[in-house]
Specification:
Strand order of the largest sheet: 1-3-2
Structural class: alpha+beta
Distance between the termini: 59 Å
Strand content: 5-15%
Largest sheet: 3 strands, antiparallel
Mean pLDDT: 77
Shape: flat
Length: 132
């Protein structure tokens, strides 16, 4: 799954996806879906309470904050590709490119595996004492 590289808002949206909740709670994506399905099946008594929007689940930010006992850190560290950069640091020049070496660093061509002959896979039924 590829995440989009759009700008991340300064604060968390009111409804989160299951993948975002998994990143916030530091659990696997599969476990998060299990807990959300359990929450939907038990009407929020067990698992993570969620709402279905078409074929997707949405979890209220306030429910997760209540379970965690505090506010959500946003953007999620290690989840969002683009970090929030203060405006004064956005104008810093990028580092100078490193000089390239003069040697050719192209990777070698992949080699093909030789197929075995069909006669190699079947053992001879006759015992040969002397080579032919």
């Amino acid at each position: 799954m590829t995440r989009r590289t759009a700008t991340v808002p300064d604060e968390a949206p009111d409804y989160l996806t299951v993948v975002e909740v998994a990143a916030i709670k530091r659990i696997s994506r599969g476990r998060a879906y299990e807990l959300v399905r359990l929450g939907v099946a038990t009407n929020g008594k067990d698992g993570i309470p969620a709402e279905r929007v078409d074929k997707q689940f949405r979890i209220s930010k306030y429910v997760i904050e209540e379970q965690l006992g505090g506010p959500i850190t946003w953007p999620i560290p290690g989840f969002h590709d683009c970090a929030a950069v203060p405006p004064d640091e956005a104008s810093v020049e990028p580092p100078a490119p490193q000089p390239t070496s003069t040697t050719d660093t192209t990777p070698p061509k992949p080699t093909r595996r030789n197929r075995s002959k069909s006669s190699d896979s079947q053992p001879d039924t006759q015992l040969r004492l002397f080579p032919a």
